Amino acid sequence: MAQVQLQGIVKAYGALRVVHAIDLDIADGEFVVLVGPSGCGKSTTLRMIAGLEDISGGALRIGDRVVNDLPPRDRNISMVFQNYALYPHMTVRENLGFSLKIAKRAEAEIAKAVTEAAEILSLTPLLERKPGQLSGGQRQRVAMGRAIVRHPDVFLFDEPLSNLDAKLRTQMRVEIKKLHQRLGTTIVYVTHDQVEAMTLADRIVIMRDGRIEQIGTPLEVFETPVNTFVATFIGSPPMNLLAGRIAGGAVELADGTRLPIPPGHGAAEGRAVTFGVRADNIMPVGHALPPTAHMAEVEMEVQLSEPLGTETLLFAMLAGTEVQAKMLNPRPVPLGERLRFQISLDKCHLFDADSGVALRV
Amino acid sequence: MTRLRLPPWLVLLLPAIIILAAVVLVPLVLSFYSSFTAYQLTRPETLWKWIGTFNYRKAAGDANFWWAFGRTVLLLTIALNLEMLLGLGLAVMVSKVTTGQRLLRTAMMFPMMFSPVLVGFQFKFIFNDNVGLVNNALQSLGLTDVAIPWLVDGHLALFSIIFAEIWTSTSVFAILILAGLYAIPQDPVEAAKVDGCTPWQSFRFVTLPFLMPFIYIAMAIRSLDVARAYDIVQIMTNGGPARRTELLWTLIGRTAYVDARMGYANAMGYIAILLSIFFTIYFFRKLTAARSELGMGV
Ligand SMILES: Nc1ncnc2c1ncn2[C@@H]1O[C@H](COP(=O)(O)OP(=O)(O)O)[C@@H](O)[C@H]1O
Ligand SMILES: [Mg+2]
Q: Is A234 among the domain residues?
């Protein structure tokens, strides 16, 4: 077990920089998820930690060693790849035991470790099969088994669930979480799926274009996003953003609708701003929006409703922008109906219109 | 008058059937038939002299034939294995080169661009005991002062022939193995690195199993090539000295055209073909096994 420390880590392909001097401290036993849109440099960062990609600049520490120039085999890490990367010519048993065989461990010890890992991941009946005879979910479990037999210092996961169907994905997510609780090993996990990130992580690292936008616990990044990118990336449906301007101590939208400045935020008179509110915090009056200290009301015309069972998602227009709102205690909503909506101002956000940065005070 | 009407499909296929019959079927049947006769090129009437399996029985008891057979198998074994090792080494090295790889790949193919007859002449000159490059070089370097009889001594002559074979054909292995190296999925190789493999271990346990199908294809192609080896040997040593480098097809060629005993030569030819069939089946089995090992199906 070990902590991982990235100090000003840079990756460049020739003149093209794809990771820009990122700093990240990962504590021993922590489950950290790197999340961001495709192409933002998550895999590259992970592969630099693994030693599969040269580090162009900065220092990488695993435990208390600088490992920049160590080959993967000397870093004591395990990695689970997106496409499983099993050895097709070896049985599940051989796949699981391969790293120990390479490390020249005793036969008996290998057999014991393999049996144990197979037990944990319910692979025991499949031990004599080849990867070609396994389903996607089973292959994924073998890939995980191969990672855990070695008791490495750090586990690295690169989108391990993205090739599985939705149901299996949820199931494996739970298994990975349990595995972490059971082994307590440091995990760095890459995904583009914010739900995976929210459910698995101790801390989330949100990346964009090779830079870290925000680091924090799932609740921190959800409740206090540092900018509009994080605000819309984390949470589903994405946060509604309304363009406006500070006028007379309130946010005035394009059509003249006035919304109070959310508590804890502030901006100079006349500044162009973006008002952010999640669907959970804007509901039709009388639909059980939990009351908070500061409330506001707006009237909107409903364009579309999506019943989800326990709640209904409403799509409405406000100042020329589509807004998603929620309705608990669902009832059929006729198209074009004008409703009054309540907003929990305490849960709303204010961002600078140009930079997107949160305007907290 | 009713004209004979052939079904249209037959009419359409007829040209192909006629050509195939003329170039494949007739020679095949004729040569097979003649292997049961005392046919001599110089006496055409002997084509009708049926002697049953006499030619086959004679070949079975002919020491020269079996020596040539054994020598062909020996040449094949040595040449194929060395070519495989050299080709593997060459392919791996070329695949590691980052700049100028195209150029190297092309250069690697050069030996295959020359006619084997010319290669034979070239090596005949290189290994000549008086004016050859090898002896001249060895003597100039002071490594020896005798003229080593490269093409005259039986063992050395076989060595020289194997050398020439390897020079021309290692690139068959190299190019096929290189294709294999390009086709290897990167994931398992990376997984092996993370699993603690040294570069040699990754190669041995992951890369090589992926290459085996390509190696067996090259083996199958080259086994057919070497089993019918004729030109290089014919030029370099003409099967000599004293039949010490006689291979199956130089023997068969000599029997057919020098001794004019076509019937006997055909009989030996049919036995020789069994060798090629054996190696083809052998390497294709290996290929299938290597592929199913990798879960590639059959
Ligand atoms: N070998 C390479 N050469 C040049 N650019 C690359 C190379 N590999 C990746 N990139 C670029 O680096 C960026 C980050 O890639 P990656 O880390 O794979 O993103 P992701 O966050 O989707 O995992 C992408 O824009 C990609 O195009
Ligand atoms: Mg990726």
A: no
Q: Is A272 on the interface with B (CB under 8 A)?
A: no
List C-alpha distances in Å: A237 to A9, A132, A280: 33, 38, 9
**Contact, B95 vs B189, CB < 8 A?**
no
Domains and CATH numbers, chain B: 21-110+170-293 (1.10.3720.10)
Q: Which of B184, B194, B202 to mutate to test the interface with A (most CBs of A within 10 A)?
A: B194
Is the pLDDT reported for residue A43 higher than 70?
A: yes
Q: Tell me, what's the pLDDT at B1?
A: 55
Number of H helices, E strands in chain A: 8, 20
What tokens does A67 get?
Answer: 């490992």
Ligand with minimal distance to A46 CA: 1
User: Which protein residue has the closest C-alpha to ligand 1 atom 20?
Assistant: A39
Residues A30 and A203 sit within 8 Å (Cβ to Cβ): yes
For ligand 1, pick from A11, A19, A33, A44 the residue to mutate: most ligand atoms within 8 Å of CB: A44
Q: Are residues A269 and A214 in the same domain?
A: no
**In sequence order, what are the beta bridge partners of A272?**
A245
Beta carbons of A33 and A191 less than 8 angstroms apart? yes
What residues in A contact B188, CB-CB < 8 Å? 85-88
pLDDT in tens, B149-191: 888 887 888 888 999 999 999 999 999 999 999 999 999 999 9
Supply the range of the domain harboring residue A322. Answer: 240-352
Residue pair A50/A72 in contact by the 8 Å Cβ criterion: yes
**Rounded percentage of chain A residues whose pLDDT exceeds 90:** 70
Q: What are phi and psi of A356, to 5 degrees?
A: 80, 0
Nearest-Cα residue of chain B relative to residue A143: B191
Q: What is the dihedral of CA A174, A72, A55, B178, to 10 degrees?
A: -110
Nearest listed ligand to the Cα of residue A162: 2
Higher pLDDT, B148 or A115: A115
User: Is the CB of A191 within 6 Å of ligand 1?
Assistant: no
CA separation for the pair A234, A146 (Å, rounded): 32
**Contact (CB, 8 A) for B135 and B150:** yes
Number of domains in chain A: 2
Q: Which helix (H) or strand (E) holds A110?
A: helix A107-120
